[in-house]
Structures are given as structure tokens and as C-alpha cells.
Amino acid sequence: MATDIKAALGRQRIETPSWAFGNSGTRFKVFAQRGVPRDPYEKLADAAQVHRHTGVAPTVALHIPWDKVDDYAALARHACDLGIAIGAINSNVFQDDDYMLGSVTNPDPAVRRKALDHLLECVDIMDLTGSDTLKLWFSDGTNYPGQDDLRSRQDRLAEALAAVYDRLGEGQRFLLEYKLFEPAFYATDVPDWGTAYAHCLKLGPKAQVVVDTGHHAPGTNIEFIVAFLLREGMLGGFDFNSRFYADDDLMVGAADPFQLFRIMYEVIRGGGYNERTAFMLDQCHNIEPKIPGQIRSVMNVQEATAKALLVDGDALARAQSEGDVLGANAVFMDAFNTDVRPLLAELREEAGLDPDPMSAYRRSGYAEKIVAERVGGPQAGWGA
Ligand code: PSV
Ligand code: MN
Known about the structure:
By secondary structure, the chain is α/β, with parallel strands linked by helices. The chain is built from 14 helices and 10 strands.
């Protein structure tokens, strides 16, 4: 049993986001940290540290244009030299003045064309980097009732998605992300999983939904959404993070480890624990150091996964079929309350890693090295 669980944990892959290594903050203040990367190459070097100490984070997602470079093939080679690879390409149609009234749903056809060209450019970058996943998030929406026609905006969105879908090559897919609100406050054009699901369903198997755990109303049962999407073959992956209030982008598993466990249970139960589901982090480390913030997040996902794998399926099925409410709940809680840290330490040692990635990183001297070496030049951050 423990051997099976360890084997399953050994196969786990968690993707880090390049933007987690740059400076970030709130609309009130972005705090600069020393040693932060100045370009995408340095971001990849930091991501490689997360993989070096955890052994389960071999890919890093890019965000375009934050990670724009002249030679994407060279960037992919750099990743390879560091022992990692480029993961999902994240599009960005939310940071240009032209997008004030929307990107692909903008009433102005010229702005829509510009947004679509960017999305198609992201597919070109997939070709150049070997990435198989495009992540689409649209900040599009309206702030005031009557501001624009809700239905026409859906038509424009569908048209753009179809054009991107048609451009996808063999083995490529896009993941459509939804978000309840922000930056639009009255109506968001892709506000929920249902809207994302309906658009993807119309297009075909290369379009799937991505669940960003921070993009729901308080109290939403995210694991239900996960179970449903998996049942329909429409769950493409996760943007993992934690929230207390809205889209806080805090470390996954920090605010609600029980919720993360419940999500991972449904992933396993629904047959989604494999390479077809992208387990990505989408976080910003505003006040904590970034590389250990990512290491901690990866470990939190591993711990939730280990606990979910520990759920005794036979005992649970028996209790459920007998209508034993408390018994079934106890099976769940027993797994959640198990201390899986020794098991994960053992797994790391067997893989030739330090059993404690956080302290291994601290002892490596990498943090001091980047502070000493990365002097001068503008630091990477939102918008760079
Ligand atoms: C939007 O809030 C989002 O979750 C999307 O994934 C963006 O690309 C990402 O955050 C940027 O941090
Ligand atoms: Mn996200």
C-alpha cells in the first residue's frame, strides 16, 4: 500500500509560474526583493532550484509578454540545460491601454484583431518552445449595466476562441480560465466554469477548462466542479493558489489545506491524476521570499496528494453503500489527519534528494548568491 502511494507520488508533476519569481504586490504597493531575476533566463534559473530540491517541478510556465525574448528556441534550450522545460504559455490581453473595454470581446474590431493576433503569437511561441498548452484568461467584462451588450460579447468571444482553436497544432490544446470578477465588477465575460465549459464543448477536445482555485465566490464547493469537469473529460488542469478573500494568489494549501485535500481526492477519484491534468501554481509571493515560497507550495500540494491517496477506497465505498454517514466521513478525516511528512521525506531520500527541501535550499547558498550577483538592471515584475 505505502509502496503504491509512494510510486504515485513519485510520478507527480507540479508546474511553477515564471511570474512567481518576479516582484509582485497589490494595487497599493509592489515590494522589491533583492536577488529577483532581471529577465526570463534568470526566472528559469530560479525555477530550476525549485525542481532541484523537490524533484517534482520540472516545468515552468511562461507569461507573454512578461517573458518575451528574441529567441524562444534558445530560451527552451536554456531551460533544458537547467534540467527543466517550458510548460504552459500564458497569454496576456489585459495590460494594454487598448484593452480598457475588453480584448477579444471589445466592441472595436481593430482591438479584437490585435488581441487575437497576440493569442495566435502565443501559439507560435508554443511551436518554438515545444509547449503543448496555451492558457487563456480574459479580464474582459463591464463595470456598469448597459455598458455593452452581454450577448454580443459572448459572440465575439466565441469567434476568437474558434480562431485560436483552429490554429492549434497536433498535440496542442488550450485551457480556458474563468474568474468570477476583477478587474470587471459588474459582468465578467468568462465568470464561471459553466461559461468556460460551454465554449470549450462547442470547439472540441483541444479545448478544456482550467480551475484557478482563487477564482470563486466564498464557500464555493470547488471539488464538486473538479468532479463534474473530470466526469465530462473537460478538466484541463489547475492554477493552484490560496485565498482568504478574493484572488489573493497566496501559497496553495496555506489558507485551507483541507480544501486542497478534497480537491486532490476528487482528482484521483475521477481518474485525473495523470499527465493529462496540468497541476500548475499561479501565485505571487509579495512579502515572502519567492523560491522557498514555491518550494513550500509544491510541498503543500504533495502533502494534500499523499493524504488523498491514503483514503481507504474500499472502506469508504462500504460505508457509503451502507449509508454509514459518520463512518464514511471518518474514512475521509482519518486520511486527512495522517501525518504524511515522514512518507514524503522517505520518498525524497529514495530519489536521492534531501528529505527537507526547505532547509536544503537554505543551506545551498543560492539565495545569497543571487543577491550578490543580480545587481543592476531592472528587476522582473508585473508588466516586465
Ligand atoms: C488572473 O487572475 C490569473 O489567474 C490568470 O491566470 C493570469 O494569467 C494570472 O492570474 C496572472 O497572474
Ligand atoms: Mn490563474
